[in-house]
Amino acid sequence: MRGWLFLFCSGALGTILAHQMYAFCPENTYLDIGSSLDPYLYTGASGASRGCLLQAPEERAAESCYGRARAR
Questions:
Q1: Phi, psi at 68, each rounded to 5°
Q2: Which residue, among 30, 52, 53, has the nearest Cα to 41 in the 3D structure?
Q3: How far apart are CA 72 and CA 13, in angstroms?
Q4: To 5 degrees, how large is the angle CA 12–CA 14–CA 15?
Q5: Where in the chain are the domains?
Q6: Residues whose CB falls within 8 Å of the CB of residue 64, separated by 6 or more in sequence, listed in order
Q7: Confidence (pTM)
Q8: How does pLDDT run along the chain (72 residues), one tens digit per residue?
Q9: Burial letters 6-18, b for 16+ CB under 10 A, else e
Q10: Under 8 Å between Cβ of 29 and 38
Q11: Phi, psi for 70 (deg, rounded to 5)
């Protein structure tokens, strides 16, 4: 398999897998997307596994991906 995209969201295991798979076949793309899918995979408090996910949606939208307020 060459030219494939692999997405990992399995904690530390994803990091290990991405590293090992890249060593085996560097022609693919390996991304560790972390807990970004938690709100879609889990309900309630389990889905809000990060502080940024606990914010109200309007507060979250007002911040950049670096946690600083956006220039308007």
A1: -100, 150
A2: 53
A3: 39
A4: 65
A5: 1-34, 42-72
A6: 70
A7: 0.55
A8: 789 999 988 778 888 999 999 999 999 999 988 777 777 776 665 555 565 556 666 666 666 555 555 555
A9: bebeeeeebeeeb
A10: no
A11: -75, 145
Q: What tokens does 22 get?
A: 């890249």
Q: Are 8 and 32 within 8 A, CB to CB?
A: yes
Q: Name residues whose C-beta falls within 8 Å of residue 54's C-beta, 6 or more positions apart in sequence.
A: 48
The residue assigned the tokens 């879609």 is 40
Quote the CA–CA distance of 47 and 11 in Å, as a whole number: 14
In this structure, what token pair is assigned to residue 53?
Answer: 């996910």
Residue with tokens 């914010």: 55
Structure tokens at 10: 């399995």
Indicate the helix (H) or strand (E) that contains 21: helix 12-24
